[in-house]
Write a structure and sequence with these properties.
Helix 2 (about 60-80) runs antiparallel to helix 4. It is built from seven helices and four strands; from the N terminus they run ββββααααααα. It is mainly α and about 180 residues long. The longest helix has 18 residues, at about 60-80. One of its GO terms (molecular function) is ATP binding.
Length: about 180
């Protein structure tokens, strides 16, 4: 069964909140189809949010790239700036591949730890979703560690009206079938 690697362009600009303050991921233009345990080689997404393995042109596990992008996004949301910045693309890539960033002093040690776990250069050592869900910073909000009902019951949570709107604009909504 294939999955959609939707977050190969995960960044704050592609996250929306609905009326219930639930995050909706948008802009699937750079998504990929992949089979379970399949490695990808496609370099795509926004440079500042791309993980080291993608920039190094290595084969990569899509979910681990998504978690790196979550780490960059978390850093941006907490700190108000990108962890890796440079006007020169080559220098920027070197910083990302080295994991060379400095968290500001004003963020707590637990948040620094969560960001560091997500921005771990070695994808085999990077935080997984389970690691994030178990992390002290994540668990500060009681409902944050509870899986949404639609995921528990096996539903993917995609809304039909959104899929219909996508269909009107060209992309094939079946690309975004439920994750299992």
């Amino acid at each position: 069964m294939w999955h959609a690697a939707v977050a190969e362009d995960l960044k704050p600009e592609n996250l929306l909140l609905d009326e219930h303050k639930r995050i909706k991921i948008v802009d699937f233009g750079l998504s990929n189809r992949f089979d379970d345990n399949q490695l990808l080689k496609t370099a795509c997404g926004s440079h500042c949010y791309a993980p080291p393995e993608m920039l190094s042109r290595q084969s990569y596990v899509p979910q681990m790239c998504d978690l790196w992008s979550c780490g960059v996004t978390l850093f941006v949301m907490v700190c108000g700036s990108l962890p890796f910045e440079d006007t020169d693309g080559h220098t920027l890539s070197k910083k990302i591949v080295a994991g060379n960033y400095t968290p500001p002093a004003f963020i707590t040690d637990t948040v620094k730890d969560l960001i560091a776990g997500l921005l771990t250069v070695d994808p085999a050592k990077r935080f997984t979703i389970a690691d994030v869900r178990a992390h002290e910073s994540y668990r500060q909000i009681p409902e944050a560690s509870v899986r949404p009902r639609d995921l528990v019951s096996g539903q993917c949570g995609l809304e039909e009206d959104v899929l219909q709107e996508l269909k009107c604009h060209g992309p094939d909504p079946t690309r975004f079938q439920k994750l299992s």
